[in-house]
């Protein structure tokens, strides 16, 4: 059985968009065996990490497990949707519930609000579960064409053709995944309706606060708005951290996509893209961050950043419907 595989080699290097859609259609249909919501959560985790792949289109198991854990923490702890499996409880749910009890974590705590050492322990356990039940299962459903994986090396390599496809159709893939995941959760849990569930499934557990990023950016740069150069004042609470490419598209917090902003710019920009000339500004800003070799935390955050990534992110966000361009007033 494919879910027991420890190594999966890429079976098909070249795929057309039609080929990939056909496989996705099968994945979302009744032809794909789905005893839990794991496969949907893996697709969502992959989308969150599309822009974090290295030069060989690889992701670590820890990167995917971190996103996977956030998704289930959001569903199980925040929204109390504990049935994620037919029959006995899904192992990931058990891990999360046990951790919440052991460490006395309140329901209102998002996963990112938990102490780092506790996060690492939880994600490590989820990573083990994903090895046993997740990677091989989706590999089988995608006929080995979407990705390769290796449990010993703990790496996941996405097919470059699938990577480009998911960038091009990111919003559509996300919406389809959310809908089918919500439909399955509706069957497993006593909830009002799928419309109620979509709102719970749509968002990967967002950071409760961007304050750590604010402190880092203020430490390395002047306290002025990235967009209008207005001076920022902590006393008046005018300092905001803005996602340069809207969070509603990228759905992750990466320092290379975060800028300091005043309240006026942050509010008016909302989920719109800034004018393209600002892309050059953030590229220059990121070059400065990448040179902060003395700051290990920043170096770690910039590890897989490349200039072409944020340019690609900007262009693909437009292709996915984020075509309302914003300029500061």
TrEMBL record:
Keywords from the UniProt entry: Endonuclease, Hydrolase, Nuclease
Listed Gene3D superfamilies: 1.10.30.50
Domain (HNH nuclease) ranges: 213-267
Molecular function GO labels: endonuclease activity
Matches recorded under InterPro entries: HNH_nuc
Alphabetized CDD domains for the sequence: HNHc
Protein name as annotated: HNH endonuclease
Species whose genome carries this gene: Halalkalibacter suaedae
